Amino acid sequence: MDIMQTSDSSHHGIVENSPYRTPYGRHVESGNLGGSWYFSRKEIEENSLSRKDGIDLKKESYLRKSYCTFLQDFGMRLKVPQVTIATAIVFCHRFFLRQSHAKNDRLTIATVCMFLAGKVEETPRPLKDVVLISYEIIHKKDPAAVARIKQKGGL
Questions:
Q1: Which UniProt keywords are given for this protein, alphabetically ordered (predicted)?
Q2: 122-137 pLDDT tens trace
């Protein structure tokens, strides 16, 4: 019986010896991470677009921790299972492997990741609820802001 080895990337359509291609030959704009799903700490740190945009390792670690904390609180308020929260965190980590923290608001990306994780894990929440709860957490020090979004958006 012929079993395909995990090192055989031909079944993924990956162009051999090209660190700038992902599955199906699409170009990667973010360094040399290629199409692999697994990266060493060294690979992540050396290819970080955030680092290239002037964000140091300590700041990037803080930003990652902050969106993880946000997602945990967010998921609990949405009453989704822990697996959905974990999926949202993985989605965020994967996004920021390819994109810079300097060019993307981490809480907006985290909100989108939670919405998508709900769909993937079959625990969806209405977009209205996702946006409202995210906004409440982000603006928790400004109660008037929550009242404004409820009034303006008809939420």
A1: Cell cycle, Cell division, Cyclin
A2: 999 999 999 999 999 9
